[in-house]
Amino acid sequence: MGLLSLGTPLPWNEAKKHADHVRYHGISQFLNTWRRLKDRQGDELMWGDEIEYMIVELHDKDKNAVLSLCQTDILRKLDSSTRQIDADTDDSIVAPTFHPEYGRYMLESTPGVPYTSCVHDLALVEGNMRYRRALARSELLPNQRPLSITSFPRLGAPGQFTEPYYDPSNAVSSHSLFLPEEITNPHARFPTLTANIRRRRGSKVAINLPLFIDVKTPRPHVDPLIPWERSVYEEDPEAKNGAALADHIYMDAMGFGMGCCCLQLTFQACNVTESRRLYDAFVPVAPIMLALTAASPLYRGYIADVDCRWNVIAGSVDDRTPEERGLKPLKENRFRIPKSRYDSVDLYIADTWMNRPEYNDTDVPYDLAIYDRLVKDGEFCIDAHLSKHLAHLFIRDPIVIFSELLDQDDETSMDHFENIQSTNWQTVRFKPPPANSSIGWRVEFRSMEVQLTDFENAAFAVFIVLLSRAILSMNLNFYIPISKVDENMQRAQRRDALSTQRFFFRRDVFPPPRSQDTSPTPSGASTPGSNTSSRTKSRRMNNCHPTPPPPEDGSTSVPVEEEYTEFTADELMNGSGAFPGLIGLTETYLEELEIEPDERYKIDSYLDLVRRRANGSLSTTAAWMRNFVISHPAYMRDSVVSQEINYDLMRAVDEIERGVRREPTLLPENYTGGAKDKGCL
Ligand code: ADP
Ligand code: MG
Ligand code: MG
Ligand code: MG
Ligand code: MG
Ligand code: MG
């Protein structure tokens, strides 16, 4: 999670004086990187996943499941055990990496080295994920579990939900009514982020998730779990003064959002052009994958009427002032800003004919001075698309500034750039090469919720890898207006979205046929259904080739509204009529590869899971969890997830992961559970 610099963080009234300095030098740093690396070519596909876990402790005697605030301790142990692994093995084996996250009960893990373009790596993903989980598990106490759950059902509920227990009245950074200070990673960055978001906004963040209304839920539901009359912090009256809505689950702190877990994937492109094309293609895919991976229907001891974390996190870091939110006329601030810093992508960025201006159809404020600086940078000038993207990200203020790091060498540092970039949390991220590294231009896919088992996490990861390859190899065109992507983001989060919602998507995703197309593209298929069997199949998934020229017949002049339609999740993933479905596209791409039978078997089992989630023959994690709560004998049909229900749910999640408990509505019958030891790297 972002940059972890050391030093003295400035409080907001100090930090804001340096905002322009950070922005100016951040752009200088980007420009220096651009000048050096814009023409860099030929980087191999490399990619990797990030999985986040919560350490949950099971207290059997009082039937309670609580979050263990053991991050510092566990990371120290994992650091020494991974060093030992590296020392004990040759260079071909690199131990995985564990990272801190916002919550002091959270862990993140990534593979030790990124995967490559070799097909075989697809077959290593699940084993690597299981190995990482087993390593984490081996450092835990017998009653602690590394669970890959997206939201903790009783985070912020009254009583003990952390080990050790802390009272929320000491929430000096967030001033939350529900979450104690100790929930937050103690590294200065995190409490400062929390406090400065509140200070910049001028109030606590306020998230109101619609409550799932059951037959015995009191109506209107005025939440008895909110300490309405507390008076510890000046913001305490906000709840009763309108911030907390009836029939909603009210949450008032960054921890509710940034304390959620997710599954992310990062891809290295062969050059900057390919990374921008992949970025754009991922944008309309992001909400679909959010719906397919939906895994978070429970918050603060209640059942929500939504299935995903997204709006919770968006609200939890929404530092916009009332002026920026459009509640007051602009006086102190420069922009009306329609979205939180954490939200869906606002602009497509590829500089190609496929990216029609009509697709960027929402109100996107951007900093004109920064834009001018980028587009007018002499011989290195940046095109309008990318300039606008950066000038849009840079309307935000830096929230955390360390006084020691204000003056940097813009030739060698990317710190100021990353300060703004890494606090714009969008569904897809365009990652320029980091300072002082050999890494190329990358793209990160960030919308997915983490799944209970590594089989599922591997399935969604491998699916997105294959889809990314299909996009590049077949020159697929996924563009639809950003306003429709935004609408899909909201639909994706609704309860049971896969069966109740339709999603906007482009009707014809194939590139226009070319009449004199005689030169085959380096990686094979460029038209749908082309016969790939006569071509040499490859063990490599690199796809570096230029975007095709625009159609000769001018068919780009079709009105944008005719280019897209609404699909059910099943149609969109599994195909319907002439539309091949996103899974169909990955299968076409697989024909280009030389795959061993055991590799193919694994890949097929992954695609099958995705297919079955989409067609409803397996339920989403969210639907399964909701059903677990509602059918629990102790459930009172009042929307409440009690301590006992939560305990049983967390136990069930752990047993599912280990293969001890079978859930045939959630997982295929042949799922046999995660690794029981760590001997499988
Ligand atoms: P962040 O938290 O900033 O998104 P992380 O370092 O946690 O970044 O995760 C980055 C992911 O990218 C990891 O899975 C890692 O394996 C992968 N990765 C590392 N180097 C490369 C590279 N050159 N190309 C693609 N992916 C990479
Ligand atoms: Mg993370
Ligand atoms: Mg990370
Ligand atoms: Mg990080
Ligand atoms: Mg080694
Ligand atoms: Mg990431």
Overview of the structural elements:
Strands 1, 2, 3, 4, 5, 6, 9, 14 and 15 form a nine-stranded mixed β-sheet that branches. The longest helix is centred in the middle third of the chain and has 21 residues, at 272-292. Helix content is 33%, strand content 11%. Helix 2 crosses helix 12, helix 8 runs parallel beside helix 14 (482-493) and helix 13 (454-473) crosses helix 18. It has helices at 12-15, 19-37, 71-88, 125-138, 189-201, 239-243, 254-258, 272-292, 310-316, 368-375, 384-393, 415-421, 454-473, 482-493, 497-500, 569-574, 582-590, 597-615, 621-630, 643-657, and strands at 47-59, 64-68, 97-99, 106-110, 144-147, 162-163, 207-210, 248-251, 263-268, 298-299, 302-303, 342-343, 425-426, 428-431, 442-445, 502-506, 564-568. With 681 residues, it is an alpha+beta fold. It is built from 20 helices and 17 strands. A hairpin with a 2-residue loop joins strand 10 (298-299) and strand 11 (302-303). It has one domain: Creatine Kinase, Chain A, domain 2 (2-Layer Sandwich), CATH 3.30.590.50. The protein is globular, with a radius of gyration of 24 Å. It binds adenosine-5'-diphosphate (ADP) and magnesium ion (5 copies). One magnesium ion (MG) is lined by residues 86, 89-91, 93-94. Keywords: Ligase. This is Glutamate-cysteine ligase catalytic subunit.
